[in-house]
């Protein structure tokens, strides 16, 4: 495949209002889980990870504020990027998400542009795929850059699970971590953005996406009559490795959207056992949701931002990073990243 470089980032999370602050907190395993104004079925306060903005904005307004801040930071981190010539690919919650804001997609890009006081290229679009949105955006960015002639593409994601209807629905399905259920996730919210570019002349190593793969899992997290064999994730892994021309053993560590539910840990383990053909003594699994909660469509750009920080600051476990994502509908995606020079890209 034609490589893509990740050259800048921005983030707004429960543990930091910038990418450096958020990545530092995630590196140190610091969280900001607090009691909310919502009560679970056991009469206890729900725990969540909320973003502490300067005003108590809610719903669509807060999504716009978070997304705008992350995008602005990503642009500021990469001088020379012209927003007018740069498409924005924005990931949001999937259409079937319980409690999803009505008409979320309508006018969202224009509202973010108005908040930022600028315009993005008309090729901008919204990708409503939840946690796999960023991987789909990487696929689209490859086309926009290598076929559409764009120099840069912005990939962003914004989401929030802190909606009454959303929390009620997931608690009813026994998906939330509550006083009555230990096998669940902590709801969160946030936004992140990364700047994508084609490889260019540089003496410094750059974080490149060298492989993408996608799959579909029939045994979804709420399916009760189909045994989990990690078919979708295994398919995505094999496709990404085929694009990159390498084996899984060449990856140094894993970054994932897993947010606490046993199902997704089991799926990751099964997929690994079906894909890794060479014994590795260590293949550590990093999951930022342990610090920022379940942030839905924002987690993909969060993972890319964490990978960029770990690579540039040298605290990653090697140059090659295996990232995987999956949403509740069964869509699975894998992105293989490598911190390398332009000659190797």
Overview of this protein structure:
- By secondary structure, this protein is of the alpha/beta class.
- It folds into two domains: 4-197, Thiolase/Chalcone synthase (Peroxisomal Thiolase, Chain A, domain 1, 3-Layer(aba) Sandwich), CATH 3.40.47; 206-340, Peroxisomal Thiolase, Chain A, domain 1 (3-Layer(aba) Sandwich), CATH 3.40.47.10.
- Helices cover 31% and strands 23% of the residues.
- It has nine helices and twelve strands.
- It has helices at 19-27, 59-76, 108-116, 133-146, 164-172, 231-244, 262-275, 289-292, 299-313, and strands spanning 4-12, 34-39, 45-48, 88-91, 125-127, 152-160, 189-197, 206-216, 253-256, 285-286, 320-326, 331-340.
- The chain has a ten-stranded mixed sheet, with helices on both faces. It has a two-stranded antiparallel sheet with strand order 2-3.
- Strand 11 (320-326) and strand 12 form a beta hairpin.
- The chain is globular.
- The protein starts with a strand and ends in a 5-residue tail after the last strand.
- The mean pLDDT is 95.
